[in-house]
Specification:
single chain; alpha+beta; five-stranded antiparallel β-sheet; 1 helix
Amino acid sequence: MASNQQTRPGIGELAKDSARNRIGVVMGEIGGRVQMRPLRGGMEWDAMPDHVVALSAREELSARLAVKNGNSQVGL
């Protein structure tokens, strides 16, 4: 694969559902759809594989920092 081609994020990786503009963790794939879960837990949602993209370094850092900040507010 050429270095300029992107691969879809794997299970357990952070990704963006570009159709919904939501970031989540890839949980699996069933029936041709990718199951994603919000970073802080909650209900999974289905995303079309073509809309699931890897995060930029900036997006990933921002998402991880938001989770840390949210956790610190509740004492985790």
